[in-house]
């Protein structure tokens, strides 16, 4: 009897030990997966944080101030699906092909289309960089720094990132800066929005559909959700950091996290802007510093300071990512060295495009009497129109078995893309007819 009990106990101990070993292995596997996700998170989150750039923040805030708690809240949430669909294809194309988007365009469709995309992207990026300087200088104006000095300080901060060596170090610094985005969440709570009114927007539009500005703002919001530079940036960044086809699953997690963060911040900025609903006239001709002052007058000085800090940070992160997309695309088109792992002496032309873009945008920012808020809105609209031919090429490439192999678009991805394309093309055509024909 004692022997039997001992044997039973031994068997139980062995069973427990096996169970514990299995549990430990599963825990270790989960830990390794989590570490891999953390190690590879970067391009997707960075693209999303750059998407909430200074121009985008200003546009979102103006939208809330112009239309209040309205259809733009559910619209912004719905557009996150559009953002993820496009960015996931960009990530997957870069991981599998190991070639930048501009290189693929040149290879399969010739120099004309490559130059068309390159030059239109460079022009759009310069406009966007100008709005980033607008946001950064507005943030610095809040603490009494004059425009010219704020522009110089912003330029120095932007250029300082390239002094760090290696892609990963530059990426981690940019990701760390993104934590400041939480200030927009804080401001949204300080505004004390009516939760019931926000929920009602999913049932009723709560918006003046006859407003002559409504379509402008809808196109601007759509343009901000899928800016052209994001497609070029994410694919090239994935290649530069060493991601390959086996990392697609983790790349999707990275992109999802980025899209979720992007939409949360965008919603918080719109909600913050609703506190100014009906209180600001002719916002489009004003500057972002007037928006900051209005927030201070309505919600308190702390909210104004937080908004200024968030706007400066949003402009800085976006200026880095946007200028890098210009550098990668130009260097790919002309076959220059184009890695952030290279030093300035190893890839001088690559970094020259980055520095040159920053200098041009800073110079434009100093031109007197620019309608800054209108410029921010118009830049988002142009991006919403320019994204259409880029998206068409992206869909073609991600459906080519020659390029993607077994990683080409699935049937359901193509369905989602068709919906995205119809939405973008339809909105662009409606905007053009409304603005220039009617």
Automatic annotation (TrEMBL):
Q: Is Transmembrane among this UniProt entry's keywords?
A: yes
- Cross-referenced InterPro entries, in alphabetical order? NRAMP_fam
Keyword flag Transmembrane helix: yes
Membrane spanning segments where? 33-51, 57-82, 116-134, 140-161, 173-191, 214-233, 257-278, 303-329, 350-370, 376-397, 417-437
According to Swiss-Prot or TrEMBL, what is its membrane topology? Multi-pass membrane protein
* Compartment(s): Membrane
Keywords in alphabetical order: Membrane, Transmembrane, Transmembrane helix, Transport
Residue ranges of coiled coil: none
Mainly resides where? membrane
Q: What PANTHER family is this protein classified in?
A: NATURAL RESISTANCE-ASSOCIATED MACROPHAGE PROTEIN 2, SOLUTE CARRIER PROTEIN FAMILY 11 MEMBER
What this protein is called in its record is Divalent metal cation transporter
């Amino acid at each position: 009897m004692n022997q039997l009990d001992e044997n039973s106990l031994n068997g139980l101990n062995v069973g427990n030990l096996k169970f514990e070993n299995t549990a430990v292995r599963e825990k270790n596997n989960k830990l390794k997966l989590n570490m891999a996700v953390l190690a590879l998170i970067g391009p997707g989150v960075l693209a999303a944080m750059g998407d909430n750039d200074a121009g985008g923040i200003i546009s979102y805030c103006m939208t809330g101030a112009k239309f209040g708690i309205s259809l733009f809240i559910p619209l912004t949430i719905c557009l996150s699906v559009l953002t993820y669909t496009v960015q996931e294809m960009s990530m997957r194309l870069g991981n599998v092909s190991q070639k930048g988007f501009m290189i693929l365009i040149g290879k399969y469709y010739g120099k004309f289309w490559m130059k068309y995309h390159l030059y239109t992207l460079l022009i759009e990026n310069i406009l966007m960089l100008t709005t980033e300087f607008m946001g950064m200088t507005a943030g610095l104006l809040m603490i009494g720094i004059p425009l010219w000095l704020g522009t110089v300080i912003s330029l120095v901060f932007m250029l300082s990132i390239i002094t760090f060596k290696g892609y990963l170090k530059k990426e981690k610094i940019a990701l760390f800066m993104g934590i400041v985005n939480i200030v927009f969440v804080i401001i949204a709570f300080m505004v004390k929005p009516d939760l019931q009114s926000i929920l009602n927007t999913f049932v009723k539009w709560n918006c003046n559909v006859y407003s002559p500005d409504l379509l402008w703002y809808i196109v601007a919001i759509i343009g901000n959700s899928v800016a052209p530079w994001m497609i070029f940036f994410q694919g090239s960044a994935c290649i530069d950091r060493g991601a390959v086809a086996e990392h697609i699953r983790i790349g999707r997690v990275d992109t999802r996290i980025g899209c979720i963060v992007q939409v949360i911040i965008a919603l918080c900025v719109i909600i913050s802007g609703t506190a100014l609903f009906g209180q600001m006239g002719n916002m489009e001709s004003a500057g972002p510093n007037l928006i900051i002052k209005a927030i201070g007058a309505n919600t308190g000085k702390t909210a104004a300071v937080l908004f200024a800090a968030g706007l400066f940070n949003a402009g800085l992160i976006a200026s880095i990512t946007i200028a890098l997309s210009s550098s990668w695309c130009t260097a790919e088109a002309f076959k220059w060295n184009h890695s952030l792992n290279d030093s300035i002496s190893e890839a001088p032309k690559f970094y020259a495009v980055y520095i040159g873009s920053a200098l041009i945008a800073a110079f434009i920012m100093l031109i007197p009497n620019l309608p800054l808020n209108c410029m921010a809105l118009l830049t988002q609209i142009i991006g919403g129109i320019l994204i259409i031919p880029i998206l068409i090429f992206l869909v073609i490439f991600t459906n080519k078995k020659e390029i993607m192999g077994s990683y080409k678009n699935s049937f359901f991805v193509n369905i989602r893309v068709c919906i995205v394309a119809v939405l973008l093309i339809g909105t662009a055509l409606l905007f053009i007819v409304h603005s220039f024909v009617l």
